[in-house]
Amino acid sequence: MKKVSAAIAVLMATAGTAQAQSSGLTLYGVIDAALSFQTHANPGRDSIYGLQQGGEGFLSGSRFGFKGNEDLGGGWKAGFTLENGFLADTGKLDQQGQLFGRQAFVKIGHDRYGEIALGRQYTTGNTMMYYVDPLGVGAAPSNSWQVYLVGQRYDNAISYTGTYGPWQVIAEAALGEQAGHGSARSSMSLGVKYAQGPLTVIGDAQQTNDTQSRHARIYMGGAKLAVGNANLFANYVHSSRDAGFDSSNGGTDTASITSMASGSPTAAVGINSVFASQRRDDFYTVGANYRVTPAWLLTAALMQNFTRADNFSGSRSTLYGVADYSFSKRTDVYVAAVYERAHGGWSGLFGNTTTNAAAASGQALNGSNNQISALVGLRHLF
How many CB atoms lie within 10 A of CB 12? Predict the structure, then answer.
């Protein structure tokens, strides 16, 4: 941790010097902390009180980052992004303890032709989901579990981003870096966004390969429509995984695509579990927000996923509402309430300590079928 602290101190000092000389380097961040209450937190159906939910605020993951840009002339420009995620309740590093686990890439591009970036980056699926999700993809486990289907970030990634009028295109490939196996733990994806007036429409397709040549394929579509003071949101994700697909290579979540595998082999079963047979998931979100006044924003949404495999049929549903009050453009407070329910093969999902899902071993989950969460949060942007 001394080395980590020293690295941060050097970057902070560099940021201060560069700010004085030019506008090419920016320090930015978000801190989101929330008092939380959650029912059915263990197989005994006990409730839990704490700060944060899964180490996260409800609206945003806490972070700080550095962005640098340089004008090379003739429309060409270069830059970088280093973005750290941290847990506001403990101060620990997030994203498997990586210093810049959220983003770490360098880029070069042209105003007309688009840009190329190399390094750790968001998946095209996560980026496209941001445009059509009521919370821009939330942070807490109760409002962002779709990332276990879509994936959040690619390691070893090469991406191209181009904007052509109302169209944006992102093509991305992540190198698996496995000697003798060019496709192992690699990923490829393509995301497209159309934004014109009150309407935004997105589409995305991606494939990830594990070390055993098994595949996970994702297809996504969604839309956002502005109507007066309201925004309406809808998105759909279809996920198909070969039997036994596991991009984590045995539980180490540092594959080319993160938050898409089983996590630790000793962890309780979650929606991202590895299945012994081919697995298919169909995920939906419908929601809206409404600007009551310049300061008050109300948001509500329903998320639902249906999982199918051999001898397995289950679903998970989440209904949430948020009332957010902005003191300024940088500081807001919010109240959030969530109700979640699991059916069929996912029964017993909440607060379970089971390490083998029924889909893999026939062992039923030992948690509860429903869970209620309530949070009061404070968020500050800088």
Answer: 13
Find out whether 98 and 152 touch, Cβ atoms under 8 Å. no
SS3 of 59-95:
CCCCEEEEEEEEEEECCEEEEEEEEEEECCCCCCECC
Q: Domain containing 36 — which CATH number? A: 2.40.160.10
CA dihedral sign of residues 354, 357, 360, 363: positive
The whole model's pTM is what? 0.88
Which domain covers residue 123, as residue numbers? Answer: 30-381
What's the full length of the chain, in residues?
Answer: 382
Mean predicted confidence (pLDDT) in 130-155 = 92
Q: Do residues 51 and 35 lie in contact, with contact meaning Cβ atoms separated by under 8 Å? A: yes
b/e per residue, 69-99, with b = 16+ CB within 10 A?
A: eeeeeeeebebbbbbbbbbbbeeebbbeebb
- Read off the pLDDT of each residue in 104-128 and give the average, rounded to a whole number: 96
| Angle formed at CA 168 by CA 165 and CA 169, multiple of 5 degrees | 135
pLDDT at residue number 258? 62
- CA pair distance 110, 195, nearest whole angstrom: 21
- The pLDDT of residue 19 is 41
Residue 213: Cβ-neighbour burial (10 angstroms; 0-12, 13-18, 19+): exposed
Question: Are the CB atoms for 286 and 234 separated by under 8 Å?
Answer: yes
The model's pLDDT over 247-280, given as tens digits with 9 standing for 90+, comes to 766 554 444 566 565 555 566 888 888 888 999 9
Report the number of distinct structural domains present in the chain. 1
Closest CA to 230 of 286, 280, 297, 284: 297
User: Is 15 part of any domain?
Assistant: no
Q: Which of 354, 359, 349, 297 is nearest to 325 (CA)?
A: 297
